[in-house]
Write a structure and sequence with these properties.
By secondary structure, this protein is α+β, with helices and mostly antiparallel strands. Helices cover 21% and strands 37% of the residues. It has an 8-stranded mixed beta sheet, with helices on one face. Pfam families: Glyoxalase.
Length: 119
Amino acid sequence: MNITRIVPYADGGDLSAAEDFYAGVFGLEVGMRDPVLGLVSPTTPAAQIVVTPRGMENPQPHFGIDVGDPASVDAAHAEVTRRGLRVVYPITDEPWGIRRFFVEDPNGTIVNVLAHLPR
């Protein structure tokens, strides 16, 4: 498994205001606007923030871990299942090009485990 980035999720709401704040104050660039606002450092592409529209995800993940490829998502899912951890969003190929699932860690934090699908 090759962890390529760990992305924090900011609370959603006014995505336009969030874009103005993160781009205007920190110089982050918009990498994605749909289905979430993805902001990326122009100098360090693995440094990112995701802002989801309010109510988009239920449950709302706290952060995402990009494990590099879809096979690694499947491997992580198998390990989570083997350990008896709670999967709170099933393994899914999303229409915007990622394979993912959500798992609850032992302390109740929801983690989005993901990888981009081949184009």
